Amino acid sequence: MPHWVYILHSEKLGRFYTGETSDFDIRMVFHDTSDSKKFTGKARDWRLFLKFECDSKAQAMSIERHIKRMKSSVYITNLKEYLEMITKPIQSKWALL
Hints:
With about 100 residues, this protein is α+β, with helices and mostly antiparallel strands.
């Protein structure tokens, strides 16, 4: 079953949120309507910035971790224009397994 890695942006917070899911539409509804005390509950203006499909949950989680470890809004902004920044390192990693 395919999985998605997605990046949301909140103008109100001026922040990005990175996640992974098997059903993006349901997950987005949760982010928009949740009264969660977690990070995305702090704003209601989350908009999709970028999403891409992965072959497996393990691959999606690996990509999500990579993006989160970068801790950089500049890196995330550049991903939209230069998606190979994430796909090349991940493809190399998966080729080694």
